[in-house]
Specification:
heterodimer; A: Nucleotidyltransferase, domain 5; 5-stranded mixed β-sheet; 5 strands; B: alpha/beta; 9-stranded mixed β-sheet; two-stranded antiparallel sheet; 11 helices
Chain lengths: 131, 299
Amino acid sequence: MWRRKVLESGSKMKIAVTSDGTSLESPMNPRFGRAPYILIVTSEGDLVEVIDNAVNVNAMRGAGIQAAKSLADRGVEILLTGHCGPNAFTALDAAGIKVGSDQSGSVKEVVEKCVAGKVTFADKPNAEPHW
Amino acid sequence: MLNRTGKVSQPMKIAVASGKGGTGKTTVATSLAAALGERAQILDCDVEEPNCHILMSPQISKSEPVSVQVPLVEMEKCDLCGKCGEVCKFSAILTIGKTVLTFPELCHGCGGCMLLCPHKAISDTPRELGVVETGNVGSVEFVQGRIRIGEAMAPPLIKEVVRRVNPEKIAILDAPPGASCPVIHTVKRCDFVIMVTEPTPFGLHDLRIAVEAIRPLGIPMGVVLNRSDIGDGEVGEYCKASSLPLLMEIPFDRKIAEGYSRGDMLIQTNPAFAEKLCELFENISRIVNKGSDTRLATR
C-alpha cells in the first residue's frame, strides 16, 4: 500500500532506521549513535543494507558523528530514529540528511509512516550529548 | 635531604588513587605531604574537582592557562579527501557531505590531521582547557589543575600538572577517582601507587577495577584501608590473594570525620598519624628500592 504511494510520487530514496535487529519487523531502536543496527531501506520498502553498528555501541565519544558519516557515505537522505544528540545532528545536517526523531514502532512501521508523509523533520537535536 | 632518622631520602613520585570516589585519597595525600614537610610536593591531579586546597589552604603564587591546539580548516584549500577524519580516533574532525566539520570539544590536540592533510588546509588554534596553579603550603610545594567549567577534556590538563613534578622532592599526586584516562595519566610515570579503599563490597569492586587498570603499567601498589573497622574482611582477602601489601589503616572515627568537615587535615585532627604516615613513606621507599634492585639484578 505504502509502496504504491511512493511510486506515485515518483521518488525513490534511501531511508536509514536505527534498529534492534536485522529485519524490517525488528523494533526501531531509539538511540542513534549507539543502536545495534542501522537498516537502510528504500522508499519502496526494500531492505538494501544492514549496518552492524557494534563499533559505535561501545565508543567512548563521537558515536553519533561516526554513524552520521557512514550514512552520508551511503547517500542516505532521511534518518528515522528516537533521539539524536547535538554532534550527530550537526554532522547529519552538514550531510543534508533529514532527521525524523521521536519515532517508535517496527522498522517497517516507521518507514511506512515516513513515506506517507506523517513524519515531521527536526530542526534541532533532541538529546544531550553522551559524555 | 634528611629524614627523621637522619638518612637521606630519595626523590620519588607517589600517586594516591582509589577506584571508588570518597574513600579518602585526599585525606591520605594531603596528610602524607604535610607529614613529610619540606621534602614533599603535593600535586592535585583531580582537575575536575580539585580539593587538596580545601584542606591545605595553599598560597597560590602563579596561575597559568593550559590549552590544546585544535584544527582550523580552510575550505578553499580542501578537496574533501577525508584523510583528516580517518586518522582521528575521537571523531573531532570529519569530512561529511561537501564540508569538513570539527568538534573542538572532542579534540585531544594530537595534531595528526594537520600532519596528514596533503593540501596543508588545516592550521591550529588554541582552545583553553583550564589553569595550572602553583604555590606552597608552608614548606610543602603545591600544584593543582582546575578545568574550565563545562570542559570535559581532562588528560591534557593533567599532563601539565604532572609536568610540574619537582624531581628533587617526594611528589605526592592525588589522582582522580575511577580507572579511566585521567587516572592513567596521573599514575603512569609514578614509582608507586597507594590505593585507598574501604572494606565494603563497593570499595572492593572498584579497587579491583583500578588495580586491573594500573597493574599492566608495572608500577608497584599498596593499599591503605580507610574506615577499617566497618564492613567485612573481603578487601583483606583480596589484597592477600593479589599480593598487595596492606600499608596502613585509618579507623572509622567520628573525630576524623568532624575534622574533615571543618576542612582540617587528618594529621591536624589526629597528630599521631604524622608518625604513621612517615612510616608509610619509609615502607613505600623500601618497596620501590627493592623493586629497582631486582630490576637491576635481572638486567
